[in-house]
Amino acid sequence: MESLTEISRKTFSDAFEAANDPEDFQHYLNTALSSKTLLSELQNPLSHFYFVYHEGKVAGYFKYNEAAAQTDLKDPLAIELERIYVVSEYQNKGLGRRMINEVIQKAIELRKRYIWLGVWEENKGAISFYESLGFEKFGKHPYYIGKDRQMDWLMKLQLPTL
């Protein structure tokens, strides 16, 4: 639990702290990425966490949600990739692509039709990464960091039908 909390807070902070109001950001960390919240997510049988290792060290993790655990669509034919976090020192080593490929395999095994995710509209690097893997924008929804209302793009990857 401690490792999950630590890596969640570190990766999120590294990626987004500078672009947010310090008070709003701290509030977000203390609620959305608290040990209590993460433990609750871990206990949900429709949410799945996987650590990713590089040279024997935890380098990141991803979380996907099924059905009612999804944050928005709640589509039983889809998987939501809610988090894909890589520690900054391990970025640009192909880990993100490896994580996406693992989620694709899980989704195919579960006979899902597509994977969807939300990505902050200002996170141009992540948007380009997802587009390079075949994800396409299909909508948007608000995302709050404290009181700050931001906008996430909703992106979808259609899976091959069996």
Features:
162 residues; alpha+beta; Aminopeptidase; 6 strands; 36% helix; 34% strand
Explain what you see.
The chain is of the alpha+beta class. The chain has a single domain (44-158), classed as Aminopeptidase (3-Layer(aba) Sandwich), CATH 3.40.630. It contains five helices and six strands. A six-stranded mixed beta sheet has the order 1-2-3-4-6-5, with helices on both faces. Strand 5 and strand 6 (148-158) form a beta hairpin. The longest helix is centred in the N-terminal third of the chain and has 15 residues, at 2-16. The mean pLDDT is 96.
Produce a short descriptive summary.
It contains five helices and six strands; from the N terminus they run H-H-H-E-E-E-H-E-H-E-E. It is α+β, with helices and mostly antiparallel strands and 162 residues long. The chain has one domain: Gcn5-related N-acetyltransferase (GNAT) (Aminopeptidase, 3-Layer(aba) Sandwich).
Question: What's the CATH architecture?
Answer: 3-Layer(aba) Sandwich
How many helix segments?
5
Which value, in Å, is the CA radius of gyration?
A: 15 Å
Per CATH, the class reads Alpha Beta
The general outline is globular
CATH superfamily: Gcn5-related N-acetyltransferase (GNAT)
Give the class from helix and strand content and strand pairing.
alpha+beta
Mean pLDDT rating: 96
Across the major sheet, the strand order is: 1-2-3-4-6-5
Q: What is the third-level CATH name, the topology?
A: Aminopeptidase
Span between N and C termini? Answer: 37 Å
Q: Can you give the helix content as a percent range? A: 25-40%
What is the H/E order? Answer: HHHEEEHEHEE
Strand content: 25-35%
Instruction: Domain count, please report it.
Output: 1
**Poorly predicted tracts of residues:** none
Profile the largest sheet.
6 strands, mixed
Task: Give the beta-strand count.
Answer: 6
Keywords: Acyltransferase, Transferase
Domain N-acetyltransferase: 10-160
Pfam families: Acetyltransf_1
Organism: Muriicola marianensis
